[in-house]
Amino acid sequence: MSEPGAAPGLADVARRWAARLADTDGVSLPPEELEQLLHDFARTAVAEAEAARDAAMRRFTTLYSSAPVGIAMADPEGVIVEVNKELGKFLGHKPDRLRGRRLAELGFDNRDCEKLATGLAELAETDLDEFTDRVRLAHADDAGVWADIVLTRLPGDRPGTLFPVLMASDANEVHTLQETLRHQSIHDSLTGLSNASRFRTLLESALSPSARGQVALIYLDLDGFKVVNDGLGAGVGDAVLRGVATKLNEAFAGEDALVARLSGDGFAVLLRGELTTSGVISLVETALEDLAEPIYIGEHGVGVSASAGIVVRDVRDGGVEDIERAAEIALHRAKEAGKAQWMLFDPELDARDRARYRLGAEIAGALENGQFELIYQPTVKLAKPDEIAAVNAGLRWHHPELGELPAEEFFPLAETTGMTIPLGKWLLTESLRATARWRERYGEAAPDVCIRLPNRLAIEPDLVALVKEQLDRNELPARALRLCTDSSSILDPRGEVLDSLTVLADLGAKLVLTVQGSADLELIPQHQLSVQHVILSGPVVDALADGEPEVAARHLDQLVTRARELKLRIGAEGVRSHEQAERLRRHGVIAARGPFVADTATGDEVDQLIEQHTDAAVSG
Questions:
Q1: CA-based torsion, 103, 106, 110, 115: positive or negative
Q2: Of 30, 85, 189, 593, whose CB is crowded by the most CB atoms within 10 A?
Q3: Locate the EAL domain: which residues (predicted)?
């Protein structure tokens, strides 16, 4: 190879000898003397050129041998001719063992060798000065070591020849750190499963326009996991989550599946390929069975169950948000259905639910726009059917598209949208306003108004203040108001229902409890409730609709006897006929309401009923 620095030194020598030959003072030199001068010139030129070359070679050799990076030089065909100690050390070989191999063969596997070959080809075929990449090089112990490599070319010893050179620096620590950071960024640190971010990315990829086949999305949620955390501690809870992750990986092993942890105790599975609904359900059932087996952590055998929501569909049937929402809805239904089971997404059921949820979202606007009205159901005395004992007030919604909607269609939705209390307040306010009008017209002959407290209103801490405010505003005595509740409200742990009912009873309001059996009735002495009326409801009343079965009659007699022992007045609701009313009367029921009197009545209609019954009572 030609040496850098040789050409400038030769030019200096030529200039010096040219000056000597020119300086002859007009004297002609003999040929022998001129020849000697030329010989001296040539020797001097060669000596100085060799000295410069040797100095350059020493500098290059020193740099080459002491370089902190591995270097391999090859001939124009890519066969290694020189290797420095650093590269031999890096690859676990003596340098001699690497000479004679091709540069491209230093890669660890086919992919790495192809990268090296591509780099060498680009250097040879383009004007590229260097090629850089990160590849694995083959180590003597049959492992791969990560290296940041530079491929370049040096001039050869003949004009126009170029010699490939590879320089490699150790990238194992950097690569390991980068891989660790990458792994942490896409995996859950506790379970090692994919995290929510990576799961969403791969879900988007599975539903890309180029995707084909089916996809299944499964959301799983542990049932009652808070009990494990609170009862056994967060450490045991973490161990349980790791155990769940292991079981899920095993349950879906062998499938084209991605298992991820999305939240605290929420997991997801993505399946891709040619899928069938029955096949996916079978996999989920196996997973749920495996999860039901206890996970042993130390001395604790912790049992957990899980609920699952399943969506199976063609990849072209909607986007990521659609399938995620479907899986969430299916999981929610599985939880509502009793947990520890799976639920398959049902598009038709979802369409009905969407309509219901839209209805729930419209309640606030409907209340503001006056779409609700009071409806009534009178309660009459069975011994004197012409006398109204009380009027039960309820709500009806005049929906602009769906028509008249009864309370049972919108009150459950109001519970989920937070509108139960506003509706309950409106019901109380308007009912007491109507009661004030009746009392002004009919005096003490006016019936009481009975309001069934929605569960959420019954547990409201400000219930007492709300009732008292409305009584005072309408100048009504508390005894004009009957408040009806049931066992679920009394036993609701979210509020101080018992205290509120006691205070209201002390104010003079009449408390009414709806009962369906002995257990409900026994809540009164058990909690020392200031209840004056009980309303029989449900099967105990329905059983006497078309006859008087012995068992049903005996059950009714037991309830009536116990109610009398507690000094309670006994009514019934849902009475359909006068014959049914008469049977109930014979067994001790003193008042009733239902279709046998009137199904429902508007404000004007109930005013007429009250007037008729009041006139009949006066004339009687």
A1: negative
A2: 593
A3: 356-614
Distance CA 30, CA 32 (A): 5
Helix ranges (H only) for 460-591 are 463-473, 487-490, 497-507, 518-521, 523-527, 539-542, 550-565, 578-586
- Which residues are 485's β-sheet partners? 513
For the beta carbon of residue 556, count every other beta carbon within 10 angstroms: 24
Q: How much of the chain exceeds pLDDT 90, in percent? A: 23
Instruction: Identify the DSSP state of 117.
Output: H
Give the pLDDT confidence of 442-484 residue by residue, as tens digits. 888 888 899 887 777 777 888 888 889 989 999 999 998 998 8
> Alpha-carbon distance 302 to 285, whole Å?
20
**3 state SS for 275-340:** CCHHHHHHHHHHHHHHHHCCEEECCEEECCEEEEEEEEEECCCCCHHHHHHHHHHHHHHHHHCCCC
Strand partners, 571: 535, 591
Long-range CB contacts for residues 363-368, cutoff 8 Å, separation at least 24: 363/410, 363/413, 363/414, 363/417, 363/419, 363/423, 364/417, 364/419, 364/422, 366/397, 366/399, 367/419, 367/422, 367/423, 367/426
Q: What is the 3-state secondary structure (H, E, C) of 557-591?
A: HHHHHHHHHCCCEEEECCCCCHHHHHHHHHCCCCE
Does this model's pTM top 0.70? My answer is: no
Q: Within the chain, how many helices (H) and strands (E) appear?
A: 25, 21
Q: Which of 218, 227, 223 is nearest to 252 (CA)?
A: 218
pLDDT at 225: 80
